[in-house]
Amino acid sequence: MSHTHHDSAPALHVHPKDPAKIRKVWMTAGILAFFTAVEFVCAFTMHRGPLLTSIFVLLTFVKTFYIVGEFMHLKYERKVLIWSIVLPVMFIIWLIVALLMQGDYIFVERAAIFN
What we know:
Elements: H1 19-45, H2 50-71, H3 79-114
Helix pairs in contact: 1-2
């Protein structure tokens, strides 16, 4: 009984890594890390309030635009396409915040009436 090995799988060719692509990945990670670090510093050094919330929302939108542009490859598309994706998300977030604030207001007012 003879065992022969027939390699019918195609040979895999390992391509050298492109330094420009590696640099771009590290640049993307660095930019996102920078904005996250700014959020961290603000979270631990600033007083809780509308200013801190506004900074968080602004930085979140900046990171969102960057992620959408970089990872969804929309950076190379027309700006109208990017806005058509990001703007509805912003309105949905605004709607959720408005509904939560209104719901809390009604809850607080009813609690004041019954107490």
